[in-house]
């Protein structure tokens, strides 16, 4: 957002009733936002990115964002890569207004494509011309000065616009084998495939999540407030150009952030959902920009980073931020937040971008198999990542057990054991990996097992069948092993619930599934059950009509699976992830 050649993201002017809350007459508040921490890894520490990030995460995550200064530099600059290495490279731009929005039913921001494609050189000329036209200078200016000029323009602007090259597939990291940064593990083209990255298990390309995307901007380029899909981490590398300013809100303050936006930014008439979920869903459109002094005024923690070329910015799970984005990644400690994001996505009926449940099961099985071959001195039970994987996995299996007991005692359903991948629930869009209801004749309209009231017959008129994974016994064994690592419990067979005949179940009052289970199978290895609550979030705009059409598309084309699993008959919506690099 700062410096000689960034482009500004689309925003709009607030009305008078909002401007009193967005008081920009005195911009000294820009000096009151504390800076996030900056880290300077040694070349040795730099060799293992995710190990280093896990090392600093406990401290850095308290700020929502942090900056990492690379100890090695690229041999080939971005301009060389985009003009020489990438022949015929061109990109399209967004046209974005420089003003603040009223955020009511008459003034809601949408972005538009210009329709013109630029070469890197052509856009560089345009960006430098725009900078000189405003400041009558071609030299770099202090970031603090440009920041104040940006917010002044946002407050006073009416018809000014900028252009922004967004969601450009690819990267400006060099392919030259002699380029130290390009051949390092910090090359974002390879980041998602690092051994410790959970995203490595996704076997399909998802731009911006499994692969980086490039953002090319000019003066006043900015990315609206948002949180990452599925509360993932993100990483951004600044290749070249002037400094950029980021604002970040730590994950622990995310709910407070949403409440503040709901009460002091949006008009109630544009919110389709009540409470924080309404704000979350609207923020997911990635068009909401407002000055961070709103957070200062309402005691919400907010931090700043001024990113220079050669520096990385990390955003932590559920950290709202405004600025330039990234490739997503996840360590093992992400799973609890991933579970929360999955529940919120389901609650809001918004399509997931990655198969959380499948990632969790796959990673849990890898941990389980690894733990069996380790010596007793090297068991991972006490590590943070192990706990973060084990507990959500146990809760997931526990939830399936409870739901299956309920279904088995109340409905006459057949079971099948030939599912190998994930499905999307046609009612709530939850991704289902362990088991789900599906018609074995038309294979349409799958339903997850977590609805108290769900249709017993498919739209084609035939009864639903409970589909379960072929490797349910292995999942059961892993869950029992994890539980036994915490406490001693009686043996329990989850797979028997999936395979038992419904008529064999002893009827117990519906409101006590655990008592019912004890009467059938004895004490559970998973301990006390709790029915999963469902709340969800997403990072793209989804109208009801779009959800319906997208669901139909997935049914026809199949669902994103993870490595090691065959692809099923429904796929995730692989919309292009709008993340960025410069």
TrEMBL record:
Domain JmjN residue range list: 36-77
Residue ranges that the Swiss-Prot or TrEMBL entry lists as coiled coil: none
Pfam families, sorted: JmjC (PF02373), JmjN (PF02375)
Record-linked SMART domains: JmjC, JmjN
Annotated JmjC domain residues: 183-350
CC annotations in GO: chromatin; nucleus
Protein name per Swiss-Prot or TrEMBL: Lysine-specific demethylase isoform H
